[in-house]
Design brief:
Elements (H helix, E strand, L loop, with lengths): L2 H21 L1 H5 L6 H22 L10 H28 L1 H8 L2 H12 L6 H19 L8 H23 L5 H23 L4 H4 L3 H22 L5 H7 L2 H14 L5 H24 L2
Helix pairs in contact: 1-11, 1-13, 3-4, 3-9, 3-11, 4-5, 4-8, 4-9, 5-8, 5-13, 6-7, 6-8, 7-14, 12-14
């Protein structure tokens, strides 16, 4: 195997491993007896510390402060990411990891739908069809749940987390001069600050309860977030855009598989079909977007 082929294989391995780490978030979080914003607080704290250490070790140089406008966009993206994660982890507890993850992954489709207005991208027939398929999937997966009042709040949290995901992606794309590891590090630091302010205002720091949840908190913060982000951002620069877009849906698929295997969650046949529609529609939209950009 050539040197270039070896590096490409390593990038594939890093990228797929990072997606599996992200996909296991719900299972790891289920082992933590803290509320959603406490979990995200520790996740962003440990992840930020890890990425700062990697950035310093690799002798990286901060470039983001040279463009104040892009730094502002990235800060908004960081706030949106922190809020999105908090809502998603709350949805985990209300409607389960499987359903919350599938609802959350409507976020990329929201970005796709808004891209003509925000990024002046053409919304072709393939993207419109993909968007319609995702909406049909949302109706299928949530139709049964909407008939049960106890699920309504969880669905709302899931939908709001998807909306905040869209905000995160949109403003991150606007911060064009801040890329790679520096982008991930600064965004995670802003998310940590956001959660810190929220938590101090609500209850103060939860240090007393951390000792009972130490291992899963460390795993979620260092492995799933810190190492996961490092693997993700160190690999995507070496992979084709099409690979990143399509293989990225391994994350929600693995999240559902992990939830079924480790949490004994079950989806009805209609909800499984809805999940296939959501992911399939998103993939169709991504493929259409990639073909249109050539």
């Amino acid at each position: 195997m050539s040197m270039a082929g070896s590096k490409r294989s390593q990038a594939y391995f890093k990228y797929l491993l990072s997606l599996l780490f992200f996909g296991s978030n719900g299972v790891v979080a289920s082992r933590i007896s803290l509320n959603s914003y406490e979990i995200v607080f520790f996740r962003t704290l440990l992840g930020s510390v890890f990425l700062i250490a990697v950035f310093l070790f690799s002798k990286g140089k901060l470039q983001g402060f040279q463009n104040k406008k892009h730094l502002m966009f990235l800060s908004i993206s960081g706030v949106a990411m922190g809020v999105s994660w908090m809502l998603l982890f709350e949805a985990y507890t209300k409607i389960g990891v499987s359903m919350a993850t599938l609802v959350y992954y409507c976020g990329p489709v929201i970005v796709m739908a808004l891209s003509p207005l925000i990024f002046h991208e053409r919304l072709g027939m393939g993207r419109i069809m993909g968007f319609g398929i995702v909406l049909a999937g949302m109706l299928l997966i949530n139709g049964e749940a909407l008939q049960q009042n106890e699920f309504s709040w969880g669905l709302l949290y899931g939908i709001l987390s998807a909306v905040m995901y869209a905000f995160m992606v949109i403003f991150n794309k606007k911060a064009k001069s801040i890329t790679g590891l520096e982008n991930a590090m600064l965004q995670l630091i802003v998310s940590f600050v956001t959660l810190s302010v929220f938590m101090v205002a609500k209850q103060g720091f939860p240090m007393a309860s951390l000792s009972q949840n130490l291992f899963p908190v460390l795993f979620l913060g260092i492995v799933n977030t810190g190492i996961g982000c490092y693997l993700y951002f160190s690999s995507i620069e070496k992979l084709p855009a099409g690979t990143i877009a399509i293989f990225g849906y391994l994350e929600p698929l693995s999240a559902v598989v992990f939830a079924v295997a480790f949490l004994q969650e079950r989806l009805s046949a209609v909800q499984i079909l809805g999940g296939i529609f959501i992911i399939g529609g998103a993939v169709i939209g991504e493929l259409s977007s990639l073909k249109g950009s050539r």
